């Protein structure tokens, strides 16, 4: 199995799962994870031979999302981890699947937000009262772990991306 195939089939999905789980349990997405995804993309792009032009467009997609998400973070609409995760994911996704990624993430994030707000309206079950992550998730002063929706959306669109096709030789 080639290193680029491992990056696309294992590293990226594992990183997305870790980001979602981390956001759920700690309400943070680690900086090291976003940096690791950035480095892994560079290696994957080089190993798949997607070319400088295609890699540049992927970088542009990540840059556009970073700029928009930074503005949203500055306005207090989203968390910093969500902004970084969305940008580094857009780097992997590229412009060809960026709109589907953002659309699915928006729908999933909306459903996630509605579910969490509904759960917060009810008392925390006694079984979960000793779990720090459940208490944090139930706290109305906390945000929503939107990284879950971002990660799930990324996994949905990944098989339709240019980096996926390059890695599997299609």
From TrEMBL:
It comes from the Bacteria. The chain crosses the membrane at residues 29-52, 59-78, 98-117. The keyword Transcription regulation does not apply. It is a multi-pass membrane protein. It is found in: Cell membrane. Residues 1-19 form the signal peptide. The keyword Endoplasmic reticulum does not apply. Residues 10-113 form the Prepilin type IV endopeptidase peptidase domain. Keywords: Cell membrane, Membrane, Signal, Transmembrane, Transmembrane helix. Pfam families: Peptidase_A24. InterPro entries: Preflagellin_Peptidase, Prepilin_IV_endopep_pep. This is Prepilin peptidase.
């Amino acid at each position: 199995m080639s290193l680029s195939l491992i990056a696309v089939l294992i590293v990226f999905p594992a990183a997305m799962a870790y980001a979602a789980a981390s956001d759920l349990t700690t309400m943070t997405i680690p900086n090291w994870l976003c940096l690791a995804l950035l480095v892994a993309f560079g290696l994957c792009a080089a190993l798949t031979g997607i070319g400088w032009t295609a890699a540049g467009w992927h970088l542009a997609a990540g840059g556009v999302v970073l700029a928009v998400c930074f503005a949203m973070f500055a306005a207090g609409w989203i968390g910093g981890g969500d902004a970084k995760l969305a940008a580094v994911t857009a780097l992997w996704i590229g412009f060809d699947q960026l709109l589907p990624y953002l659309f699915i993430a928006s729908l999933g994030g909306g459903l996630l937000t509605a579910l969490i707000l509904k759960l917060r309206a009810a008392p925390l079950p006694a079984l979960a009262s000793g779990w720090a992550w459940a208490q944090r998730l139930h706290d109305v002063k906390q945000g929503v772990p939107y990284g879950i929706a971002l990660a799930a959306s990324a996994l949905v669109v990944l098989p339709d991306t240019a980096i996926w096709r390059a890695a599997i030789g299609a």
